[in-house]
Specification:
Strand content: 15-25%
Radius of gyration: 30 Å
Low-confidence stretches: none
Length: about 600
Protein backbone atom coordinates (compact mmCIF):
# COMPACT_ATOMS: atom_id res chain seq x y z
CA UNK A 1 0.00 0.00 0.00
CA UNK A 2 1.08 3.61 -0.52
CA UNK A 3 1.09 5.39 2.82
CA UNK A 4 -0.30 8.95 2.80
CA UNK A 5 1.56 11.84 4.41
CA UNK A 6 -0.84 12.11 7.38
CA UNK A 7 -0.17 8.51 8.39
CA UNK A 8 3.58 8.65 7.75
CA UNK A 9 4.11 11.80 9.79
CA UNK A 10 2.11 10.45 12.72
CA UNK A 11 3.95 7.12 12.71
CA UNK A 12 7.25 8.96 13.18
CA UNK A 13 6.15 10.58 16.44
CA UNK A 14 4.23 7.63 17.91
CA UNK A 15 5.07 6.77 21.50
CA UNK A 16 6.15 3.32 22.74
CA UNK A 17 3.76 3.60 25.71
CA UNK A 18 0.54 1.58 26.02
CA UNK A 19 -2.66 3.03 24.65
CA UNK A 20 -5.53 2.84 22.17
CA UNK A 21 -5.47 3.68 18.45
CA UNK A 22 -8.49 4.73 16.36
CA UNK A 23 -8.52 4.28 12.57
CA UNK A 24 -10.62 6.65 10.41
CA UNK A 25 -11.61 6.44 6.73
CA UNK A 26 -11.60 9.38 4.32
CA UNK A 27 -15.06 10.45 5.57
CA UNK A 28 -13.79 10.63 9.16
CA UNK A 29 -15.78 7.52 10.14
CA UNK A 30 -14.18 5.33 12.82
CA UNK A 31 -13.64 1.93 11.19
CA UNK A 32 -11.39 0.22 13.77
CA UNK A 33 -10.32 0.60 17.41
CA UNK A 34 -7.43 -1.37 18.92
CA UNK A 35 -5.28 -1.47 22.03
CA UNK A 36 -1.52 -1.86 22.27
CA UNK A 37 1.17 -2.51 24.85
CA UNK A 38 3.49 -0.53 22.58
CA UNK A 39 1.62 1.92 20.33
CA UNK A 40 4.50 2.56 17.91
CA UNK A 41 5.22 -1.11 17.24
CA UNK A 42 1.59 -2.12 17.00
CA UNK A 43 0.29 0.61 14.68
CA UNK A 44 3.38 0.47 12.45
CA UNK A 45 2.70 -3.23 11.78
CA UNK A 46 -0.50 -2.35 9.93
CA UNK A 47 1.29 -0.11 7.41
CA UNK A 48 4.31 -2.29 6.59
CA UNK A 49 4.47 -3.88 3.15
CA UNK A 50 4.08 -7.38 4.53
CA UNK A 51 1.46 -10.07 3.74
CA UNK A 52 -1.75 -9.66 5.74
CA UNK A 53 -5.09 -11.43 6.01
CA UNK A 54 -7.61 -10.17 3.45
CA UNK A 55 -9.86 -8.57 6.09
CA UNK A 56 -6.87 -6.75 7.64
CA UNK A 57 -5.69 -5.50 4.25
CA UNK A 58 -9.22 -4.33 3.42
CA UNK A 59 -9.32 -2.29 6.63
CA UNK A 60 -5.81 -0.85 6.07
CA UNK A 61 -6.72 0.14 2.49
CA UNK A 62 -9.65 2.15 3.90
CA UNK A 63 -7.60 4.07 6.50
CA UNK A 64 -7.13 7.77 5.80
CA UNK A 65 -5.73 8.78 9.20
CA UNK A 66 -5.60 7.60 12.80
CA UNK A 67 -5.71 9.01 16.32
CA UNK A 68 -4.31 7.54 19.51
CA UNK A 69 -4.71 7.84 23.28
CA UNK A 70 -1.92 7.10 25.75
CA UNK A 71 -2.93 5.20 28.89
CA UNK A 72 -1.21 4.45 32.18
CA UNK A 73 -1.34 0.68 31.71
CA UNK A 74 -2.53 -2.12 29.43
CA UNK A 75 -5.54 -2.61 31.71
CA UNK A 76 -6.54 1.03 31.19
CA UNK A 77 -6.05 0.56 27.43
CA UNK A 78 -8.34 -2.49 27.44
CA UNK A 79 -11.06 -0.60 29.34
CA UNK A 80 -10.79 2.44 27.03
CA UNK A 81 -10.84 0.22 23.92
CA UNK A 82 -14.05 -1.43 25.16
CA UNK A 83 -15.72 1.97 25.74
CA UNK A 84 -14.70 3.33 22.33
CA UNK A 85 -15.93 0.21 20.52
CA UNK A 86 -19.31 0.60 22.22
CA UNK A 87 -19.39 4.28 21.33
CA UNK A 88 -18.35 4.11 17.66
CA UNK A 89 -19.36 0.51 16.79
CA UNK A 90 -16.62 0.29 14.12
CA UNK A 91 -17.20 -2.03 11.18
CA UNK A 92 -13.91 -3.92 11.57
CA UNK A 93 -14.29 -4.65 15.29
CA UNK A 94 -16.07 -7.52 17.00
CA UNK A 95 -19.46 -6.21 18.11
CA UNK A 96 -21.37 -8.44 20.51
CA UNK A 97 -24.88 -7.13 21.20
CA UNK A 98 -25.32 -6.19 24.88
CA UNK A 99 -29.01 -6.87 24.81
CA UNK A 100 -28.79 -10.50 23.64
CA UNK A 101 -28.13 -12.25 26.94
CA UNK A 102 -28.87 -15.94 27.39
CA UNK A 103 -31.13 -16.96 30.28
CA UNK A 104 -29.93 -18.25 33.65
CA UNK A 105 -31.80 -19.87 36.53
CA UNK A 106 -31.30 -17.88 39.72
CA UNK A 107 -31.83 -19.00 43.32
CA UNK A 108 -31.53 -16.18 45.86
CA UNK A 109 -30.12 -17.97 48.91
CA UNK A 110 -30.56 -14.84 51.05
CA UNK A 111 -34.33 -15.28 50.99
CA UNK A 112 -35.88 -17.27 53.84
CA UNK A 113 -37.74 -19.45 51.31
CA UNK A 114 -36.02 -19.19 47.89
CA UNK A 115 -37.63 -19.95 44.53
CA UNK A 116 -36.43 -20.33 40.96
CA UNK A 117 -36.20 -17.20 38.81
CA UNK A 118 -35.30 -16.81 35.13
CA UNK A 119 -32.89 -13.90 34.60
CA UNK A 120 -30.75 -12.64 31.73
CA UNK A 121 -28.21 -10.67 33.72
CA UNK A 122 -25.85 -12.10 36.29
CA UNK A 123 -25.14 -9.93 39.33
CA UNK A 124 -22.60 -10.24 42.11
CA UNK A 125 -25.36 -10.55 44.72
CA UNK A 126 -24.54 -13.83 46.44
CA UNK A 127 -27.27 -15.76 44.61
CA UNK A 128 -26.68 -19.06 42.85
CA UNK A 129 -26.86 -18.94 39.04
CA UNK A 130 -27.19 -21.91 36.70
CA UNK A 131 -26.72 -21.70 32.93
CA UNK A 132 -26.60 -20.17 30.39
CA UNK A 133 -29.30 -22.20 28.60
CA UNK A 134 -29.63 -22.03 24.81
CA UNK A 135 -29.50 -24.06 21.59
CA UNK A 136 -32.61 -26.19 22.03
CA UNK A 137 -32.91 -26.06 25.81
CA UNK A 138 -35.96 -24.10 26.94
CA UNK A 139 -35.14 -22.68 30.38
CA UNK A 140 -38.86 -22.27 31.15
CA UNK A 141 -39.44 -26.00 30.58
CA UNK A 142 -36.52 -26.80 32.90
CA UNK A 143 -38.05 -24.61 35.63
CA UNK A 144 -41.46 -26.26 35.11
CA UNK A 145 -39.79 -29.67 35.37
CA UNK A 146 -38.18 -28.70 38.67
CA UNK A 147 -41.45 -27.32 40.04
CA UNK A 148 -43.35 -30.49 39.10
CA UNK A 149 -40.84 -32.68 40.98
CA UNK A 150 -39.88 -30.64 44.04
CA UNK A 151 -42.24 -28.85 46.41
CA UNK A 152 -40.87 -25.32 46.16
CA UNK A 153 -42.89 -22.16 45.81
CA UNK A 154 -43.52 -20.39 42.51
CA UNK A 155 -45.34 -17.30 43.85
CA UNK A 156 -43.90 -13.77 44.02
CA UNK A 157 -45.03 -13.22 47.61
CA UNK A 158 -42.44 -12.03 50.09
CA UNK A 159 -42.27 -14.89 52.60
CA UNK A 160 -40.23 -14.58 55.79
CA UNK A 161 -39.89 -16.82 58.82
CA UNK A 162 -42.37 -14.58 60.69
CA UNK A 163 -44.90 -13.80 57.94
CA UNK A 164 -48.11 -15.83 57.73
CA UNK A 165 -50.59 -15.92 54.84
CA UNK A 166 -54.30 -16.47 55.43
CA UNK A 167 -54.43 -19.64 53.34
CA UNK A 168 -52.44 -21.77 50.90
CA UNK A 169 -52.65 -21.45 47.13
CA UNK A 170 -53.82 -24.11 44.67
CA UNK A 171 -50.30 -25.52 44.20
CA UNK A 172 -50.35 -26.81 47.79
CA UNK A 173 -53.61 -28.66 47.14
CA UNK A 174 -52.06 -30.19 43.98
CA UNK A 175 -49.02 -31.37 45.93
CA UNK A 176 -46.69 -29.01 44.03
CA UNK A 177 -45.74 -26.68 46.91
CA UNK A 178 -44.96 -27.25 50.60
CA UNK A 179 -46.75 -23.97 51.54
CA UNK A 180 -44.06 -22.08 53.46
CA UNK A 181 -46.46 -19.09 53.34
CA UNK A 182 -48.69 -20.72 56.01
CA UNK A 183 -45.82 -22.44 57.82
CA UNK A 184 -46.76 -25.95 56.65
CA UNK A 185 -42.99 -26.43 56.38
CA UNK A 186 -40.17 -24.80 58.37
CA UNK A 187 -37.12 -23.22 56.77
CA UNK A 188 -34.79 -26.14 57.54
CA UNK A 189 -37.04 -28.64 55.74
CA UNK A 190 -37.67 -26.24 52.86
CA UNK A 191 -33.92 -25.70 52.35
CA UNK A 192 -33.44 -29.48 52.09
CA UNK A 193 -35.80 -29.36 49.10
CA UNK A 194 -33.78 -26.46 47.64
CA UNK A 195 -30.60 -28.54 48.05
CA UNK A 196 -32.21 -31.29 45.97
CA UNK A 197 -33.05 -28.72 43.28
CA UNK A 198 -29.45 -27.46 43.29
CA UNK A 199 -28.20 -31.06 43.04
CA UNK A 200 -30.28 -31.50 39.86
CA UNK A 201 -29.17 -28.17 38.33
CA UNK A 202 -25.56 -29.19 39.03
CA UNK A 203 -26.01 -32.20 36.75
CA UNK A 204 -27.48 -35.03 38.86
CA UNK A 205 -30.62 -36.21 37.05
CA UNK A 206 -31.36 -39.60 38.65
CA UNK A 207 -33.42 -38.37 41.64
CA UNK A 208 -35.70 -36.08 39.65
CA UNK A 209 -36.19 -38.77 36.99
CA UNK A 210 -37.32 -41.28 39.62
CA UNK A 211 -39.71 -38.75 41.21
CA UNK A 212 -41.34 -37.89 37.87
CA UNK A 213 -41.66 -41.53 36.85
CA UNK A 214 -43.44 -42.34 40.12
CA UNK A 215 -45.80 -39.38 39.68
CA UNK A 216 -46.55 -40.35 36.08
CA UNK A 217 -47.37 -43.96 37.03
CA UNK A 218 -49.53 -42.86 39.96
CA UNK A 219 -51.45 -40.37 37.80
CA UNK A 220 -52.09 -43.05 35.18
CA UNK A 221 -53.31 -45.50 37.82
CA UNK A 222 -55.72 -42.86 39.14
CA UNK A 223 -56.89 -42.26 35.55
CA UNK A 224 -55.59 -38.68 35.75
CA UNK A 225 -54.26 -38.93 32.23
CA UNK A 226 -53.72 -35.18 31.69
CA UNK A 227 -51.26 -35.07 34.60
CA UNK A 228 -49.62 -38.28 33.39
CA UNK A 229 -48.99 -36.67 29.98
CA UNK A 230 -47.44 -33.61 31.66
CA UNK A 231 -45.07 -35.81 33.69
CA UNK A 232 -44.22 -37.76 30.54
CA UNK A 233 -43.24 -34.51 28.79
CA UNK A 234 -41.14 -33.49 31.79
CA UNK A 235 -39.31 -36.83 31.57
CA UNK A 236 -38.58 -36.08 27.91
CA UNK A 237 -36.84 -32.90 29.07
CA UNK A 238 -34.68 -34.97 31.46
CA UNK A 239 -33.85 -37.36 28.60
CA UNK A 240 -32.84 -34.41 26.44
CA UNK A 241 -30.47 -33.24 29.18
CA UNK A 242 -29.05 -36.75 29.62
CA UNK A 243 -28.26 -36.94 25.91
CA UNK A 244 -25.93 -33.97 26.39
CA UNK A 245 -23.75 -35.70 28.97
CA UNK A 246 -20.05 -35.68 28.03
CA UNK A 247 -18.56 -39.16 28.50
CA UNK A 248 -15.72 -39.44 31.02
CA UNK A 249 -16.45 -35.94 32.38
CA UNK A 250 -17.41 -35.61 36.07
CA UNK A 251 -20.91 -34.22 36.74
CA UNK A 252 -19.66 -31.23 38.73
CA UNK A 253 -17.43 -29.89 35.93
CA UNK A 254 -18.10 -26.51 34.25
CA UNK A 255 -16.16 -25.49 31.13
CA UNK A 256 -16.36 -23.06 28.23
CA UNK A 257 -14.72 -24.00 24.93
CA UNK A 258 -13.76 -21.35 22.34
CA UNK A 259 -12.73 -22.17 18.76
CA UNK A 260 -11.85 -19.46 16.21
CA UNK A 261 -11.72 -20.21 12.48
CA UNK A 262 -11.20 -17.80 9.58
CA UNK A 263 -10.73 -17.98 5.83
CA UNK A 264 -8.84 -14.71 5.84
CA UNK A 265 -11.86 -12.57 5.00
CA UNK A 266 -14.66 -13.90 7.24
CA UNK A 267 -14.35 -15.46 10.68
CA UNK A 268 -16.39 -17.24 13.33
CA UNK A 269 -15.98 -17.97 17.03
CA UNK A 270 -17.81 -21.07 18.23
CA UNK A 271 -18.61 -21.22 21.95
CA UNK A 272 -19.49 -24.53 23.60
CA UNK A 273 -20.89 -24.32 27.13
CA UNK A 274 -20.49 -27.31 29.45
CA UNK A 275 -22.23 -27.17 32.83
CA UNK A 276 -22.58 -30.03 35.29
CA UNK A 277 -20.86 -32.37 32.83
CA UNK A 278 -23.45 -31.61 30.10
CA UNK A 279 -23.22 -29.61 26.89
CA UNK A 280 -25.86 -26.93 27.46
CA UNK A 281 -25.37 -25.35 24.07
CA UNK A 282 -23.20 -24.43 21.09
CA UNK A 283 -23.36 -20.96 19.60
CA UNK A 284 -21.61 -19.56 16.52
CA UNK A 285 -20.65 -15.87 16.42
CA UNK A 286 -19.61 -14.49 13.01
CA UNK A 287 -16.96 -11.84 13.54
CA UNK A 288 -15.00 -9.50 11.32
CA UNK A 289 -11.99 -8.31 13.31
CA UNK A 290 -9.01 -6.54 11.76
CA UNK A 291 -6.46 -7.83 14.28
CA UNK A 292 -3.11 -8.92 12.90
CA UNK A 293 -3.07 -12.20 14.88
CA UNK A 294 -5.88 -14.73 15.23
CA UNK A 295 -5.06 -15.16 18.92
CA UNK A 296 -5.68 -11.44 19.50
CA UNK A 297 -9.07 -11.73 17.78
CA UNK A 298 -10.00 -14.53 20.20
CA UNK A 299 -8.81 -12.36 23.11
CA UNK A 300 -11.00 -9.49 21.90
CA UNK A 301 -14.01 -11.78 21.60
CA UNK A 302 -13.67 -13.30 25.08
CA UNK A 303 -13.21 -9.92 26.76
CA UNK A 304 -16.62 -8.87 25.37
CA UNK A 305 -18.36 -12.23 25.71
CA UNK A 306 -17.99 -12.48 29.49
CA UNK A 307 -19.61 -9.15 30.29
CA UNK A 308 -22.67 -9.91 32.48
CA UNK A 309 -22.01 -13.66 32.32
CA UNK A 310 -20.61 -16.25 34.72
CA UNK A 311 -16.98 -17.14 34.02
CA UNK A 312 -16.22 -20.83 34.70
CA UNK A 313 -12.86 -21.87 36.13
CA UNK A 314 -11.89 -23.95 33.06
CA UNK A 315 -11.61 -22.41 29.58
CA UNK A 316 -10.45 -24.46 26.58
CA UNK A 317 -9.10 -22.38 23.66
CA UNK A 318 -8.07 -23.04 20.07
CA UNK A 319 -5.33 -20.38 20.24
CA UNK A 320 -2.87 -19.42 22.95
CA UNK A 321 -3.79 -15.92 24.09
CA UNK A 322 -1.04 -13.27 23.98
CA UNK A 323 -2.20 -11.51 27.17
CA UNK A 324 -3.72 -14.28 29.28
CA UNK A 325 -2.79 -12.61 32.58
CA UNK A 326 -4.28 -9.31 31.41
CA UNK A 327 -7.54 -11.06 30.53
CA UNK A 328 -7.70 -12.66 33.98
CA UNK A 329 -7.14 -9.29 35.64
CA UNK A 330 -9.79 -7.72 33.41
CA UNK A 331 -12.37 -10.42 34.22
CA UNK A 332 -11.38 -10.38 37.91
CA UNK A 333 -11.04 -14.14 38.14
CA UNK A 334 -8.22 -16.69 38.19
CA UNK A 335 -8.75 -19.02 35.24
CA UNK A 336 -7.42 -22.39 34.16
CA UNK A 337 -6.79 -21.71 30.44
CA UNK A 338 -5.97 -24.78 28.37
CA UNK A 339 -4.37 -24.12 24.96
CA UNK A 340 -3.16 -27.63 24.01
CA UNK A 341 -5.83 -29.94 25.43
CA UNK A 342 -5.69 -33.71 25.71
CA UNK A 343 -8.29 -36.41 26.32
CA UNK A 344 -11.86 -35.23 26.80
CA UNK A 345 -10.84 -31.55 26.55
CA UNK A 346 -9.36 -32.20 23.09
CA UNK A 347 -12.56 -33.98 22.09
CA UNK A 348 -14.63 -30.95 23.13
CA UNK A 349 -12.33 -28.52 21.28
CA UNK A 350 -12.44 -30.67 18.13
CA UNK A 351 -16.26 -30.59 18.30
CA UNK A 352 -16.19 -26.79 18.59
CA UNK A 353 -13.75 -26.49 15.66
CA UNK A 354 -15.93 -28.75 13.52
CA UNK A 355 -18.95 -26.55 14.29
CA UNK A 356 -16.94 -23.42 13.42
CA UNK A 357 -15.78 -24.82 10.07
CA UNK A 358 -19.29 -25.97 9.22
CA UNK A 359 -20.73 -22.54 10.04
CA UNK A 360 -17.99 -20.74 8.11
CA UNK A 361 -18.54 -22.81 4.95
CA UNK A 362 -22.33 -22.31 4.99
CA UNK A 363 -22.68 -18.71 6.15
CA UNK A 364 -20.07 -16.76 4.17
CA UNK A 365 -22.67 -15.89 1.52
CA UNK A 366 -25.16 -14.92 4.22
CA UNK A 367 -22.63 -12.52 5.77
CA UNK A 368 -21.85 -11.02 2.37
CA UNK A 369 -25.58 -10.46 1.82
CA UNK A 370 -25.85 -8.83 5.25
CA UNK A 371 -22.94 -6.52 4.39
CA UNK A 372 -24.56 -5.53 1.07
CA UNK A 373 -27.84 -4.76 2.84
CA UNK A 374 -26.24 -2.67 5.60
CA UNK A 375 -22.79 -1.06 5.18
CA UNK A 376 -22.81 -1.64 1.43
CA UNK A 377 -26.23 0.02 1.11
CA UNK A 378 -25.07 2.98 3.22
CA UNK A 379 -22.06 3.52 0.95
CA UNK A 380 -24.34 3.46 -2.10
CA UNK A 381 -26.66 5.98 -0.39
CA UNK A 382 -23.70 8.31 0.15
CA UNK A 383 -22.86 8.22 -3.57
CA UNK A 384 -26.42 8.30 -4.97
CA UNK A 385 -27.62 11.07 -2.64
CA UNK A 386 -24.28 12.94 -2.70
CA UNK A 387 -24.06 12.98 1.09
CA UNK A 388 -21.08 14.46 2.91
CA UNK A 389 -20.30 11.18 4.70
CA UNK A 390 -21.42 7.56 4.94
CA UNK A 391 -24.60 7.73 7.10
CA UNK A 392 -23.56 5.25 9.81
CA UNK A 393 -25.99 6.93 12.23
CA UNK A 394 -29.34 7.73 10.63
CA UNK A 395 -32.27 9.27 12.46
CA UNK A 396 -35.83 9.30 11.09
CA UNK A 397 -38.69 11.48 12.39
CA UNK A 398 -42.45 10.99 12.03
CA UNK A 399 -45.53 12.70 13.53
CA UNK A 400 -48.67 10.94 14.76
CA UNK A 401 -51.94 12.58 15.90
CA UNK A 402 -55.72 12.45 15.44
CA UNK A 403 -57.28 15.77 14.42
CA UNK A 404 -54.42 17.62 16.10
CA UNK A 405 -54.82 15.95 19.50
CA UNK A 406 -52.25 13.95 21.48
CA UNK A 407 -49.50 14.96 19.04
CA UNK A 408 -46.26 12.95 19.26
CA UNK A 409 -43.06 12.61 17.27
CA UNK A 410 -40.84 9.54 17.02
CA UNK A 411 -37.07 9.48 16.60
CA UNK A 412 -35.81 6.13 15.29
CA UNK A 413 -32.07 5.44 15.04
CA UNK A 414 -30.21 3.05 12.71
CA UNK A 415 -26.51 2.40 13.33
CA UNK A 416 -24.42 0.67 10.67
CA UNK A 417 -27.64 -0.02 8.78
CA UNK A 418 -29.45 -1.79 11.64
CA UNK A 419 -31.99 -0.60 14.25
CA UNK A 420 -30.45 0.66 17.51
CA UNK A 421 -33.55 0.48 19.71
CA UNK A 422 -31.79 1.68 22.85
CA UNK A 423 -31.34 5.01 21.04
CA UNK A 424 -34.99 5.43 20.00
CA UNK A 425 -36.65 8.46 21.55
CA UNK A 426 -40.18 9.91 21.56
CA UNK A 427 -41.40 13.49 21.94
CA UNK A 428 -44.72 14.85 23.17
CA UNK A 429 -45.48 17.96 21.12
CA UNK A 430 -46.03 20.67 23.72
CA UNK A 431 -46.36 24.02 21.95
CA UNK A 432 -48.03 23.45 18.55
CA UNK A 433 -51.78 24.13 18.35
CA UNK A 434 -54.00 22.04 16.09
CA UNK A 435 -52.95 19.63 13.35
CA UNK A 436 -49.71 21.12 12.01
CA UNK A 437 -47.19 18.43 11.10
CA UNK A 438 -44.66 20.99 9.83
CA UNK A 439 -44.54 22.89 13.13
CA UNK A 440 -44.60 19.65 15.14
CA UNK A 441 -41.56 18.32 13.28
CA UNK A 442 -39.82 21.65 13.82
CA UNK A 443 -40.47 21.52 17.57
CA UNK A 444 -39.20 17.95 17.96
CA UNK A 445 -36.11 18.55 15.82
CA UNK A 446 -35.27 21.77 17.66
CA UNK A 447 -35.39 19.99 21.02
CA UNK A 448 -33.25 17.13 19.68
CA UNK A 449 -30.56 19.41 18.17
CA UNK A 450 -30.36 21.67 21.23
CA UNK A 451 -29.74 18.60 23.37
CA UNK A 452 -27.00 17.54 20.94
CA UNK A 453 -25.32 20.93 21.25
CA UNK A 454 -25.64 20.79 25.05
CA UNK A 455 -24.48 17.13 25.11
CA UNK A 456 -27.59 16.35 27.17
CA UNK A 457 -28.90 12.77 27.13
CA UNK A 458 -27.23 9.52 26.10
CA UNK A 459 -28.82 9.16 22.66
CA UNK A 460 -28.76 12.90 21.95
CA UNK A 461 -25.00 13.27 22.50
CA UNK A 462 -24.12 11.55 19.23
CA UNK A 463 -23.99 13.53 16.01
CA UNK A 464 -26.38 12.18 13.36
CA UNK A 465 -24.85 11.58 9.93
CA UNK A 466 -28.22 11.76 8.20
CA UNK A 467 -31.63 13.10 9.28
CA UNK A 468 -34.60 11.55 7.44
CA UNK A 469 -38.00 13.23 7.49
CA UNK A 470 -41.12 11.23 6.71
CA UNK A 471 -42.87 13.38 4.14
CA UNK A 472 -42.35 15.47 1.05
CA UNK A 473 -40.71 18.73 0.08
CA UNK A 474 -42.82 20.82 2.49
CA UNK A 475 -41.85 18.83 5.60
CA UNK A 476 -38.20 18.83 4.48
CA UNK A 477 -38.10 22.61 3.98
CA UNK A 478 -39.61 23.21 7.42
CA UNK A 479 -37.05 20.96 9.10
CA UNK A 480 -34.13 22.37 7.11
CA UNK A 481 -34.94 25.78 8.59
CA UNK A 482 -34.24 24.29 12.03
CA UNK A 483 -30.81 23.07 10.87
CA UNK A 484 -30.13 26.58 9.64
CA UNK A 485 -31.31 28.18 12.93
CA UNK A 486 -29.13 25.81 14.97
CA UNK A 487 -26.12 26.41 12.66
CA UNK A 488 -25.86 22.67 11.90
CA UNK A 489 -26.09 22.67 8.11
CA UNK A 490 -23.11 20.28 8.03
CA UNK A 491 -25.57 17.50 8.98
CA UNK A 492 -27.15 15.90 5.91
CA UNK A 493 -30.95 15.88 5.66
CA UNK A 494 -33.42 14.26 3.25
CA UNK A 495 -37.12 13.43 3.16
CA UNK A 496 -38.85 10.34 1.79
CA UNK A 497 -42.29 10.78 0.25
CA UNK A 498 -44.33 7.60 0.39
CA UNK A 499 -46.45 7.90 -2.78
CA UNK A 500 -43.73 6.88 -5.25
CA UNK A 501 -40.83 6.81 -2.75
CA UNK A 502 -39.28 10.10 -3.89
CA UNK A 503 -36.19 11.31 -2.06
CA UNK A 504 -35.96 15.08 -1.65
CA UNK A 505 -32.88 17.08 -0.73
CA UNK A 506 -32.87 20.64 0.68
CA UNK A 507 -32.70 23.49 -1.82
CA UNK A 508 -33.43 21.18 -4.75
CA UNK A 509 -36.81 20.91 -6.49
CA UNK A 510 -35.95 17.72 -8.38
CA UNK A 511 -36.61 14.50 -6.47
CA UNK A 512 -34.20 11.54 -6.59
CA UNK A 513 -35.67 8.16 -7.51
CA UNK A 514 -33.66 5.22 -6.20
CA UNK A 515 -33.91 1.92 -8.05
CA UNK A 516 -37.04 0.01 -6.89
CA UNK A 517 -36.11 -3.04 -4.83
CA UNK A 518 -32.52 -1.88 -4.35
CA UNK A 519 -30.79 -2.40 -0.97
CA UNK A 520 -30.35 1.37 -0.51
CA UNK A 521 -34.07 2.14 -1.09
CA UNK A 522 -35.11 -0.75 1.19
CA UNK A 523 -32.85 0.74 3.88
CA UNK A 524 -34.70 4.08 3.73
CA UNK A 525 -38.07 2.34 3.64
CA UNK A 526 -37.20 0.25 6.70
CA UNK A 527 -36.22 3.22 8.86
CA UNK A 528 -39.22 5.27 7.61
CA UNK A 529 -41.65 2.44 8.36
CA UNK A 530 -40.07 1.86 11.77
CA UNK A 531 -40.44 5.56 12.65
CA UNK A 532 -44.09 5.40 11.58
CA UNK A 533 -44.73 2.29 13.71
CA UNK A 534 -42.96 3.79 16.73
CA UNK A 535 -44.90 7.07 16.48
CA UNK A 536 -48.28 5.32 16.18
CA UNK A 537 -47.49 3.05 19.15
CA UNK A 538 -46.57 6.04 21.33
CA UNK A 539 -49.67 7.95 20.20
CA UNK A 540 -51.90 5.01 21.16
CA UNK A 541 -50.26 4.75 24.58
CA UNK A 542 -50.99 8.42 25.33
CA UNK A 543 -54.54 8.20 23.99
CA UNK A 544 -55.28 5.11 26.09
CA UNK A 545 -53.79 6.72 29.19
CA UNK A 546 -55.95 9.83 28.76
CA UNK A 547 -59.07 7.74 28.24
CA UNK A 548 -58.51 6.02 31.60
CA UNK A 549 -57.46 9.24 33.37
CA UNK A 550 -59.32 10.19 36.54
CA UNK A 551 -59.11 13.29 38.73
CA UNK A 552 -58.10 10.84 41.46
CA UNK A 553 -54.73 10.49 39.67
CA UNK A 554 -53.95 14.05 40.81
CA UNK A 555 -54.07 13.07 44.51
CA UNK A 556 -50.75 12.16 46.07
CA UNK A 557 -50.88 8.73 47.68
CA UNK A 558 -53.69 7.43 45.46
CA UNK A 559 -52.22 4.88 43.09
CA UNK A 560 -53.91 2.63 40.54
CA UNK A 561 -55.16 0.07 43.10
CA UNK A 562 -56.60 2.65 45.51
CA UNK A 563 -58.15 4.58 42.64
CA UNK A 564 -59.88 1.42 41.37
CA UNK A 565 -61.04 0.56 44.91
CA UNK A 566 -62.62 4.01 45.32
CA UNK A 567 -64.33 3.84 41.93
CA UNK A 568 -65.62 0.35 42.69
CA UNK A 569 -67.05 1.56 46.02
CA UNK A 570 -68.66 4.81 44.82
CA UNK A 571 -68.96 4.51 41.03
CA UNK A 572 -67.64 7.85 39.77
CA UNK A 573 -65.39 10.74 40.78
CA UNK A 574 -68.49 12.88 41.13
CA UNK A 575 -69.93 10.48 43.72
CA UNK A 576 -66.60 10.35 45.60
CA UNK A 577 -66.68 14.15 45.85
CA UNK A 578 -69.99 13.93 47.75
CA UNK A 579 -69.10 11.36 50.45
CA UNK A 580 -67.76 12.08 53.94
CA UNK A 581 -64.31 11.39 55.35
CA UNK A 582 -65.62 8.48 57.42
CA UNK A 583 -67.22 6.88 54.37
CA UNK A 584 -63.97 7.25 52.41
CA UNK A 585 -62.05 5.58 55.24
CA UNK A 586 -64.20 2.44 54.94
CA UNK A 587 -62.64 1.62 51.55
CA UNK A 588 -59.87 -0.99 51.63
CA UNK A 589 -56.44 0.66 51.61
CA UNK A 590 -57.74 4.17 52.45
CA UNK A 591 -56.54 5.19 55.91
CA UNK A 592 -57.93 8.21 57.80
CA UNK A 593 -55.17 10.63 56.78
CA UNK A 594 -55.57 9.75 53.11
CA UNK A 595 -59.37 10.00 53.40
CA UNK A 596 -58.93 13.58 54.68
CA UNK A 597 -56.59 14.33 51.79
CA UNK A 598 -59.10 12.99 49.23
CA UNK A 599 -61.97 14.91 50.87
CA UNK A 600 -59.99 18.16 50.83
CA UNK A 601 -59.07 17.65 47.17
CA UNK A 602 -62.75 17.62 46.17
CA UNK A 603 -63.84 20.29 48.63
CA UNK A 604 -61.32 23.07 48.09
CA UNK A 605 -62.54 26.47 49.27
CA UNK A 606 -62.50 29.21 46.72
CA UNK A 607 -60.01 31.93 47.62
Amino acid sequence: MIMNDKIASKLKVLTTKPGVYVMHDKDGVVIYVGKAKNLKNRVSQYFRNSPKLSKVQAMVDSVDHFDYFITMSEMDALALESNLIKKYQPFYNILLKDGKQFPYIKINMKEAFPKLEIVRRVKNDGAKYFGPYFAGLDVREIVKTVNSAFKIRTCNNKITETSHAQRECLNYSLGLCSAPCTKKVDRAEYMKEIDRVINFLNGNDDEIQNILQEKMILSAQNQNFESAVIYRDRLKMIDKLKQRVVANLPKNIDKDIFAYQTDGLSGVVTVMVVRGGKILGVMNYPCLDAELEESQTLFNFISQYYQNMIVPHDIILSHELPDANLLQDYLGKKLNMVFSPHGVNKLLLDMAKENANEYLSKHIEKEKLKYNNTIGALKVLKEKLELSRVPLRMECYDISNISGTNKVCSMVVFKNGEPSKKDYRKFKIKYVKGSNDFASLQEALTRRLIRFKNQDGESFKERPDLLIIDGGKGQLSACYEILREQDLLSIDMISLAKRIEEVFKPESTTPILLKPGSAELKMLQRIRDEAHRFAITFHREIRTKKQTYSTLDEIQGVGEKKRDALLQAFGTSENIAKVSIDELATVSGIHKALAIQIYNHFNKKEE
